[in-house]
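Memo subject: From amino acid sequence to discrete backbone structure tokens
Action wanted: Derive the backbone structure tokens from the amino acid sequence.
How to read it: Take the token row as a discrete description of the fold.
Attached in line: The record itself begins immediately under this heading.
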Amino acid sequence: MAAPLFDIRGSAIPRSSSSREADPPLARETFAWHKTTSRGFKLIQHTTFMPTAPPPSRDVALETRFFLERFKKPIITAAIVILLAAIAFSGYRFYSDRREAAASAALASATTAQEYEQVIARYPSTSASANAYILLAEAQRKEKKFAEANKTLEAFIAKYPQHEFVSTAKMAMAANLHSMGKTNEALVMYQQIASAYPNSYVAPLAMLSQVYILKSKNRNDDARRICETMLTQFRTSFWASEAMQQLRLLKPITTSPPPPAPAPTVPPMLAVPGAPAPQAPPAPNQPQSAPSPKKP
């Protein structure tokens, strides 16, 4: 049975049957009067709240076992893949290290062009193979095979474009062109090297090589400008003293006076007759010698 409701003055508040049925038994508000003094009563409000269900207990071990049972096959598959990848990577590293060691040993024992070619053929894509290209080109250059040496260096640059010796290979190609007498092509290549590798050790060497070629072509002004540039860019290096020495050897080009303009030729018939050439004065009359007497 629902508790009666009272207003502030203590009068009972009638409740309808519908309101009594609508009030839930667990969320109903009740009021009670408590005597505090002899003159009045104090209204105390009691509110009841609907109880909440306690959280379900969680068993971590049971949930972990359920997760493993549910995803057992994917987990085992992923573990097998990771294990196989680790084994393959370890095997590849072991094979690569053994191959690099064998290539280095073969390169160390090579001394001829044929042996360098064998290292390149047997151990491609190794650091020893890259170095073998450079040594092979040097051996070919010593044999005066400049064209073959340049082909070897071109193959090296094409196969190892990011190698640290690419600039050195280009310098060797320009030197081979110079040795073959192709000075113009060598000069262009030296200029390209100096502009492409301005902070490399080959830059001053390429500029100095340009000076030698320009001097041979009597282009002393261009050679002097390159020496002055070297003094500016490499003033604290060895190349500055070499540029200064070359600058002292260069002499300014002496401009010869232009030849005199040829006199206009006039046809002989229209030419003004010139004054007659002065003749020598006649010799003075010498006294005649006396006739010698006739003999009887």
